[in-house]
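Replying to the earlier thread about multi-chain prediction with a worked example.

Input:
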Amino acid sequence: MSSRGWIFLFASWGLVSLLVVFCFYRLFMKR
Amino acid sequence: VREREQWGSRIGLILAMSGNAIGLGNFLRFPVQASQNGGGAFMIPYFISFILLGIPLMWVEWGIGRYGGTIGHGTAPGIFDAIWKNRLAKYIGVLGIFLPLVILIYYVYICSWTLSYSFAALLHLYPSGDTTAALGSASKVLAPYKDYLGAYTGAGGNGLFLAPPLATIIFFIITLAVSLWILAKGISGGIEKLSTFAVPLLFIMAAILFIRIITLPPSSTTGATVAQGFAFLWEPDLSGLLNAKVWLAAAGQVFFTLSLGLGAILTFASYVKKDEDIALDGLATASLNEFAEVVFGSTIAIVTAVIFFGTEGAREVAGGGAFGLGFISMPAIFTHMPYGSFFGFLWFLLLFFAGLTSIVALSQPVIAFLEDEFGWVRKKSVFALGIFFILTTPMAIFLKGSLDEMDFWVATFALVILALFEMIIFFWILGAERAWAEITRGAQIKVPRIFFYLMKYITPGFLVIILVAWSWQQLPGVLTKSGTGIWFTRGFLAALLVLHFIVVHLAWKRRRR
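Result:
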């Protein structure tokens, strides 16, 4: 896969992972 | 106003909402859509649609649902009627019960296939094919698996009707019985308990499959590697960004994956506590759904398809659509994979739990309607739903063409109409400031004010564009389809809709008395 493909893959996975981390951090850690 | 049920815990609520959203589409529809619409470049319109359409609609459905719960209504007819003092409002709201109910007519049946397929994997009941044939043509290796699905659904039946074997019916009855049993236990005691068990289990199973697949060695027959599998889906074709079809496909995928415009999220939200932080809960729900879709959904089915069939073969497989990928290609792949019976079992069990948590969510609107508007107790409402299934599902099981026809009218078309009415009634009739206050009440996170304008102007506009474009694109093709089974299904849907209008009319008459 080209480097552009890997960038799209990791950017997308990174975005959704960050969203999960943000939400659950706010849910459990920061009340 | 009668005391309404409530969710037992915040995490239980989020898991139930996620279970509602995560369905077969996350694992089957998404990879097919992405690979056919620009690969990695598909993710640009996808994320833009997620922000402009997905998150705003998700918050609106939570907000409108919680608002309804506080005034004793858990479904769209009651809530729309309370907000919009117009005789038509409650009849428009009928869509919030009608759509999930029609989807259930075939969804419970399809979900029962996944249960049957998981057992078939464990018991080595799939046909055994020739692995080396994968090199030549995917269709050749898939033929026995296509026949297997055909035999399971009774596609060989004559004339108008399908003739599935007894085992198919038994698995349907088991799936239906389990669903009704969970529903009878209530919001907290049934749906929430199922979700707190099934959703984490679903993530664990998906993670096991994900790890197995990304560590697969290159195929000895096709020579394809995991990297080639990723390339198949992620290699961006940036010219796709100039194609309206790609943008429409991305918006549609966001719509389906988050289960928007069905009335199910709205009903679940009506059992939320008055000062619950729905802004964060709604976002957390969407985030879990997106993780399941973008990470697991993009990897499990399509990467294995590339490794097994090669890039060209995978193109053929993806061209066969989400159903073909799930129920024809995956069994073929698992038959030839080391410990494939175990991984096949996991894959279909994962789909079963994804489906089951969606079934209970789609069932809740009609149960809530009977409880809220007719004062029925839960068990009586669930019993009535069971009778409805027994009377209607045979159509999806036995009548050729019926399933696809129902799927088009309710799961593609009408949900955009309901979503549009939700936006208009909440943000334009109740009032934008009141709607905004409803969504942000009790919020720990600061919801950016830009979403106020998105919800008021951009999201409804986006929905109108989708509705017009889909009508333009798909209606001519669908309307030219004809046949006894198809016309019977259309007549049935029209009659069922009229029956819904009558029931709502009776509920309001009863209320006036």
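Chain A touches chain B at residues 1-2, 4-9, 11-13, 15-17, 19-20, 22-24, 26-27, 30-31 (CB under 8 Å).

Feel free to reuse this layout for your own posts.
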